[in-house]
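Fig. S4 source data, part A: sequence.
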Amino acid sequence: MEMNEIVDVVSGFEGVLVIIPGEGSGSPELAWGDAFFYYAPDGVMPDRMQPYGTIVTKNYPDDEESRLDEPGRFRVNIHVGRDRAVHIVQDGASPADADVFVSHPVYGAAGWVSVVNPATSTSGLVVSLLRDAHEAARSRAHRRSTTA
């Protein structure tokens, strides 16, 4: 599954905002070309909300274990929650392994899972988990709007 295929699927979710920063976007150059998924039915990036999913195309400082600077590699990151994450990650897998779920190399303790270059083994679950993460973000946004 290619990055653009994942972006296309997520773009079809109701109320999604997909941000792919580039030159002139005001985003740090390091983020250019990566994708960030938010629940934002008004089309405005939320001030105080993290994305529920991302696709990164390069190494970030203190996050080089996935070897994303090698050609053709990208990593999908999805917030699934701590309880669910333990059932998704593959024991003994390395963050550099392709097409397997691992605990996110930096944010795993916060319930994030990752997969480098999703393919046959993981692509269906990637889409399902992104859909679930989107619905969880939608539910949080609605709870916040009714208690504000």
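Fig. S4 source data, part B ends here. Residues 123-147 form the longest helix (25 residues).
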